[in-house]
Amino acid sequence: MVTGILIGVIINHFFLPSYFIESILINQVLHTISSLFLILLKMIVLPLIFVSIISGIISINDVNTLGRLGIKTLTLYVFTTMLAITLALFISSFIDYNIETISLYNEIQNISPMNQNSNFILNIFPDNFFSALVDGNVIQVLSFAIFIGVSASYVKNEIPEFVGLINNLNKIFNKMVMIIISFTPIAVFSLLAKTFSTEGMDVFIPLIKYFSVVVLVLLLHFAFTYSLILKTFSSLSIQKFYSKLRALIIFTFSTSSSNASIPFTLNTIVNKYGVNKSFASFSIPLGATINMDGTAIMQGCATYFLAAYYGIDLVFSDFVLIILTATVASIGTAGIPSAGIIMLSLILTELGIPLEGITLLLGVDRLLDMMRTSVNVSGDTCISCVVAQSEKLIDVEKYNQ
Ligand code: ASP
């Protein structure tokens, strides 16, 4: 990131205008490298969420557990995610990013397929799964995947090959993401060098502002929303909840992955918070797959920031669209490093914001990923404790120890 910025600024100051630098170095070499990275990311999104949702649902041990407990947990997961994005958009709306907007993109507004058909419910389900796939309609692919996952859970024991196949595909796609993501430093370098050589220092301050806004909202959500949830839906001690989180936060901070943290989260919630083990082994993997408050916060702030960057005015209906899409996007985000920034492409596409913006954010995303993953996992822990208490599946004495 630093090298890219330095080289970009040097080119901007000392080497422009120059036909060779502009048309070959900036528009060919740097542009190709950063765009290739984006194309690869887009390529993997649909297959990744398709199998990760099916495999997540199948991994729930008992079909009946999917019933009441499932609905309660799911509702709270989705509720906190919506709160998170709303908070992100609310705080963002006070921020003046003060950017010289890129007017080129002014016309590309509201090309959202969701906006075109007013019936949101009907839009969730595909009448033709393959055309949903071809159109890249993530919501429809997701609903189909959930349906397959639930149906497969009922006959899980009769279809070990299918379960094995889905789990293996899940591993392969996750690995593909890791391989693509391993090129992040080169893509970040190219994009920043390209951006700073054409724009000069003007984009630096807004990027720092974006970073600070995300951190602020993550902290607010962590401190206030979870206290509020504990206070409203349970009688558990708020202070005990936070005081026992430290080791888990440090762990998730270093893995940047809700999935990789599952064993640690499970251990914490069972042994430190006293949550019943069989409930925890349902709610924690589910949360790691679908409950991503921190990710939703980043996605909300990033969408607002990039809309400002490209000079796109957001109206009220856009905010509603962002809340809905970011909820779906964060549900579809795999619990692995950097998955949230990949899924951001879904929201940007819905709003007609150029996907190029993602590479701009990548420069600061690594650090944000660590922080948001900690918030994601804290959310899973909080909701699991609350639902467990409502069903008397928690050892309150252990919780209070
Ligand atoms: N790294 C996050 C997680 O595993 C997902 C994301 O990239 O936002 O929870």
Give the tags.
binds aspartic acid, mainly alpha, 76% helix, 19 helices, 401 residues
Task: Walk me through what this model shows.
It is a single chain. The chain is mainly alpha-helical and 401 residues long. Helix 9 packs across helix 18. The longest helix has 40 residues. It is globular and about 70 Å long. The protein starts with a helix and ends with a helix. About 4% of the residues have low confidence. The structure holds aspartic acid. The site of aspartic acid has 16 residues, from helix 17 and helix 18.
Radius of gyration: 22 Å
Strand portion, in percent? under 5%
Q: Which spans have pLDDT < 50 for at least 5 consecutive residues?
A: 102-117
Task: Tell me the overall shape.
Answer: globular
Order of helices and strands: HHHHHHHHHHHHHHHHHHH
Q: For the terminal residues, how far apart are their CA atoms? A: 45 Å
Which compounds are bound in this model? Answer: aspartic acid
Class of secondary structure makeup: mainly alpha
Q: Say what oligomer this is.
A: single chain
Query: What percent of residues adopt helix (DSSP H or I)?
Result: over 70%
Secondary structure tally: strands: 0
* Contiguous helical run count: 19
Largest beta-sheet characterization: none
Mean pLDDT: 83
Question: TL;DR of this structure?
Answer:
With 401 residues, the protein is an all-alpha fold. The protein is 76% helix and 0% strand.
